[in-house]
Amino acid sequence: MSVSKMKRLTVFAFREDADRIVRRLMDLRCVEVRGADPERGEVVLPYLNADAELAETERKLAVIGEALPVLAKYATRKKGLSRRVLRTNRETFVRKGRADAALETAKQALVSKDQLRENQAEQSRLQALVASLAPWADFDQPLNELETEKATTVLGVYPPSIELDATEEALAEAGMVGEPIAVEKTGVYFAVTYLKAEEQAATRLLTEQGFLKIELPDADGTAREVAGQATEQLEALHEAYLQIEETLRDLAEKKDDVEILSDVEETNRTAAKLKQKLAQTGHCVILDGWVPAAMTGPVSDALGRFECAYELEDPSPEDQVPVLLHNNRFATNFEWVIGMYSYPRYGTFDPTFIMSIFYFIIFGLMFADFGYGLLLAVLCFAGIKVLNPRTGMKRMLMMFGYCGISSAIMGAIFGGWFGDLPTAIMQQVAPNAVDGSVGHFFSSGLWFNPLDDPMTFLVISLAVGAVHIIAGMAIKFFILCKDGHAAEAICTILPYWVLFAGLGLLIVNLAAGGAIPTGVTAGVSIAGVVMILLLNGYGQKKPFQRLIKGLGGLYGLISYGSDLLSYSRILALGMVAGVIAKVINMITALGAKGPIGFLFMLIILVVGHGLNIAINILGTFVHAARLQYIEFFGKFYEDGGDPFTPALPTEEYSEDITDGSN
Fold first, then answer.
1. Is residue 25 within 8 Å of 302, Cβ to Cβ?
2. Domain spans in the chain, listed from the N-terminal domain onward
3. Strand 343-344 relative to strand 308-313, pairing
4. Fold of the domain spanning 144-215
5. How do residues 63-94 score in pLDDT, each as one tens digit?
């Protein structure tokens, strides 16, 4: 409904009270702290140094942020669809040591996580060792005794295609002893012994035969014994792994406190960053910020509890004042649509309420289907109840829920019921009922079906567009009059309305078969043209310049015509959803015979209509917003406002019920 009036807040306080004041203002949730102007007179003041505090807080948050996913993995209570909010007194939480205990829990969780990682790495190593020793289970020579003073034994594998007898014979002819240990699909495992003096020749022969040397650990014992020892270690590691997991499950029972600590430390980080915006002297700090005028009372009460001096003053023309929109419960849910474009500049008109009404109507016309709209409304409103979303998501769901209601209403008016699903069903089950009153209601709704009479729907779309455009002009008229420029409003806007009235009467006259005298319609239209020529040059001193500007005003009718034609997208979007839904219903009817056909029908209905809803919701949202941004806002809107962002305590997981009055 309006842009809230703001007050500039300046606080002079003792430096030791800086933290308490900042936190108290955060609890009020109505103060945006700005960087204090360090230039006070001839002195340039430094900013308050909170680097050490900020670094310590970020160190804790790093530990907490890494620990929470670990604790969530082992928590017995898994995260549900609904956002769970823990209500706690954070001051008591910190004072009684629960914060320190929660930080210790987070650290222990990270230690256990590292232990699990090391345990898994060691298990992987031992498993690989056991696998590598498996082919050598029948090799009875200790692995650390493969070498004597004059001879050495190497272990390796031949390709599976070799002939054992020929290979052993070739080794024997070269003065080597080859012993096959195991024959597997991956190859033939051999132990080859040769004199050290013949190592080069032996290596060359083995390479030519395709022998691949394998390095086993230099362990005390045979391969079977070493594998057995490794298996025992694996069992012990597995037991240790289970114990570590049990420890993590115990720690996960304290996850709630770690989540509360996360909010506490995030709030501490915010407070530290805010304190860095304060200018300081030897003993005092200076805080600058903005407060909604309606909240100056609570701010004054809070600051009155400290030994400080403060001032609340109106903004000057040079100030970059943040913008806080103030609307009723319905329109508030559409504020984020304004935010996607740009907030209005401070002190200008807030169009949210009027825009929300037009958005509600236009969305419904574009998505005119009772079934789709009802489903959208139910899902959105149920989602709010089930998910318990944060404020931003809640407002978005509320807006789409209201738009779903609009779509359902328009669907009943224009005969959209999941497309023509009831009619398609009646054609299959009771064809005679299609031509009856019930069939007529479902096919044409309370008025008519746009698919059967698109031209009438186009006229309705353009009529809504005309009202939308004129409403934007009316807002501009109101703004000019409010600012003391009533003459300008009358000269630059009223003539167009006279012309539009004449054109409107002409259209009505054509539709009514000449019920209105032609002279009346022509006279009003000509009067509008003359007024534009004579009055649109308001402010120009020379007659020629006024005439040129008047001609420019007539040329501007092309822009109004172009804007009006943009509302034909209401027809396009409204028919797209209906046509696609009708095609889905036709495809469904093709397979509606027998059990398999019935199952096919259900799949087509659910998937087809689900995709149609998703695609057309997106298209409708975008195009309904575009009509607001271009055709409506273009008539009066002054953008460029910075959203009001008060300093807030973090409530990602918990809600602080601390009484901040002390």
1. yes
2. 2-49+276-322, 52-128+225-271, 144-215, 331-641
3. unpaired
4. Alpha-Beta Plaits (3.30.70)
5. 999 999 999 999 987 777 677 888 999 999 99
